[in-house]
Design a protein that fits this description.
The chain has no helices and eleven strands. By secondary structure, the protein is mainly beta. Strands 2, 4, 5, 6, 9, 10 and 11 form a seven-stranded mixed beta sheet that branches.
Length: about 120
């Protein structure tokens, strides 16, 4: 079955960096667009970034442009989110997402907390 497992979250000071990873299985990873979403406490889940199957096209939310970079390694079935210049407002649970078979699949999420 489809599985997405996120890792790499944690507590970081403002201005710091983190790299999130999402290991995928159960589908042909290299054929699908992958996305990162985040959900802050009491707020809706919003898309942060997405990357096309061959990694040629990336898109970012305005709030993270220039600070976050999405990438993928199709040989490892893994998508990454490199986050730099982190701000307290980046605090959220970050989720990996793939849309296939007419539905959305999600990982369990990884908590990112930006605080001094």
């Amino acid at each position: 079955q489809v599985q997405l497992v996120e890792s790499g979250g944690g507590l970081v000071q403002p201005g710091g960096s983190l790299r999130l990873s999402c290991a995928a299985s159960g589908f042909t990873f290299s054929r699908y667009t992958m996305r990162w979403y985040r959900q802050a406490l009491g707020k809706e889940r919003d898309m942060v970034a997405q990357i096309s199957p061959a990694a040629g096209i990336t898109n970012y939310a305005d709030s993270v442009k220039g600070r976050f970079t999405i990438s993928r390694d199709n040989a490892k079935n893994t998508v990454y989110l490199q986050m730099s210049s982190l701000k307290p407002e980046d605090t959220a649970v970050y989720y990996c997402n793939v849309r296939l078979f007419g539905g959305d699949y999600w990982g369990q999420g990884t908590q990112v907390t930006v605080s001094s």
